[in-house]
Amino acid sequence: MSDSAARPLATARGRRTPATLKRQHRAAFFFLLPACALFSLCVLYPIIDSVALSFYDWDGMTPKTFVGFANYIELFHADVFYVALKNNLIWLAVFLLAPPLGLAFALYLNQQIKGMRIVKSLFFAPFVLSGVVVGLVFSWFYDPTFGLLKLFVGHGIPVLGDPHTVTFGIVFAALWPQTPYCMVLYLTGLTAINPEVVEAARMEGAKGVRLLWHVILPQLRPATFMAVVLTVIGALRSFDLISVMSGGGPFDSSTVLAYYMYDQAIKYYREGYSASIAVVLFAIMLVYIVFHLRRMLREER
To answer: Which domains are seen in the chain, by residue range?
Structure first.
């Protein structure tokens, strides 16, 4: 075939006609349609409906009554709201220990040592336990009459009965399953590290902390982003351990926004007020995640 005949054929193969583009766009639309419909039904609609419900007074049975911003005004004047917000900040500060602890365990478990698979399974075991089981285990651990904490300290300490210690006791119980979760994320990231880059850094004299900080951690940035974001979300939506271990008490001293929202909706039938708490909690999560995501994208560029 001559060059003059082959050139139009190659051009026709490399160029997509409007009809071909239209078929591809239509196929992409139909492939995305089920996922978009499910996302709209299960995520977007509940968010929009919760925001709308927050402007109503409703007990879940009688007709709704529009009250405007009355639920938000009451919320920002309630003392329990600020106690819950403070406890959420405590959860966030202590819970952020999970990513560095998970990284330390991942670096240890990433070694090629005999029997390491058994050690990995032991470290991973807390993650597969439900929150109810973890709450019950640590409730027995903290029990001042027969708990294991009494054996270590020598006398009983009412961790869950003291308003000053109950939140910290529950947060440290939540760290037990959260740390293995971050560890798994970092173990996955360590398998994707380029060994040639690490070897080149070692040949240049980098080792120890310098190798970790300048070579390994930059390649673990996606895993760090996921670990931090999921840890923050877990700290802000903490509910199950509080429900099992303290029920928000004593005297609402351990309640958080998620449990306060549940308390108002289920116990007192204040669906509109509960929706306003949910909107505030969602706004806090959204602001943090958007800020962290933009920061990560800026660093990547």
So the answer is: 18-66 (no CATH), 72-300 (1.10.3720.10)
